[in-house]
């Protein structure tokens, strides 16, 4: 194998650049030629390939976003789109590919693997909803962004003795809400994996209020409800003044934490090693502190379970 390529796909996440850097530098270190595909699978269909050098990934380890840009491509979901992508890879004599992205991107990676292209996936998503890996790249940074926001909101919440509802990302999952909620001391955490009633939330608020707690932070994962609706309902039910903050795409940006950079560096290097070893159709991940690998078929569509003990602990500590 002489030539490989790397791309980022789906929603971006802080640390994707560190992963690109690791893949490029490890590939060159091993004597390979490496290309970047710009704008994910859309770029593969359009032949948007750029040669990568050691210098092309200089000064990016600390930057959020992705220098290769990312995209969502409906065309790539079709056999005709995939065929165009394969033709372009062959035209450039690219034999193998590293795909950095989430579940959807891995479905695309599996399609390429089934068409004879060697592919390894690296989990990149702030949602941390990719099964079998403890962490996906960008999650830790997003959690720290949310915790920083909670610290600030807590200041004003205390001053005004208000209830705050904070909506965080997590289309189908509550990993950001749960992890940041525990770290930030949120009174209630509403996530799609665990059923809740707003009456129950208000009951907790009332009890806390009676004990003299004068402010409350309620974290809502977007998959569990809209922050403004939850805020309105709570104000109505409790009669207490409530404010709402939607953190939105702030959670997707910023300089990656050391954890995300190191994760990206380790997974990037392992992905290249696997391709050099002739492997394909795999995802690299971090499980119990060890770099590990799984078949894409095992990962795709598998629901990553939330840690219920952590959820109970968060509730217990915020009475
Ligand atoms: P993520 O990778 O963050 O989950 P998406 O779900 O948007 O993001 O997927 C990213 C891209 O992966 C899609 O725009 C599409 O090009 C490709 N993709 C998603 N699902 C499939 C599929 N079933 N088959 C082939 N390609 C897919
Ligand atoms: O990266 C995952 C995610 O942040 C989801 O939690 C969110 O719903 C979605 O991406 C929004 O992405 P976009 O605005 O790019 O469609």
Please describe what this structure looks like.
With about 325 residues, the chain is α/β, with parallel strands linked by helices. The protein folds into 2 domains: about 5-140 and about 255-300, Rossmann fold (3-Layer(aba) Sandwich); about 140-250, Rossmann fold (3-Layer(aba) Sandwich). It is about 45% helix and about 20% strand. The chain has 11 helices and 11 strands. The strands form 2 sheets. It has a 7-stranded mixed sheet with strand order 3-2-1-4-5-10-11, with helices on both faces. The site of adenosine-5'-diphosphate (ADP) has 17 residues, from helix 4.
- Please tell me how large the radius of gyration is: 22 Å
Low-pLDDT parts are: none
Main pleated-sheet profile: 7 strands, mixed
Named CATH topology of the largest domain: Rossmann fold
Number of domains: 2
What is the overall silhouette? elongated
Bound molecules: adenosine-5'-diphosphate, 6-O-phosphono-beta-D-fructofuranose
Number of strands: 11
What do the pLDDT scores average to?
Answer: 97
Question: Span from first to last CA?
Answer: 58 Å
User: Which structural class matches the secondary elements?
Assistant: alpha/beta
CATH class of the largest domain: Alpha Beta
CATH architectural designation of the largest domain: 3-Layer(aba) Sandwich
Order of helices and strands: EHEHEHEHEHEHEHEHEHEEHH
Share of helix, binned: 40-55%
Percentage of β-strand residues = 15-25%
| Assembly state | single chain
Spatial arrangement of strands, main beta sheet: 3-2-1-4-5-10-11
Number of helices: 11
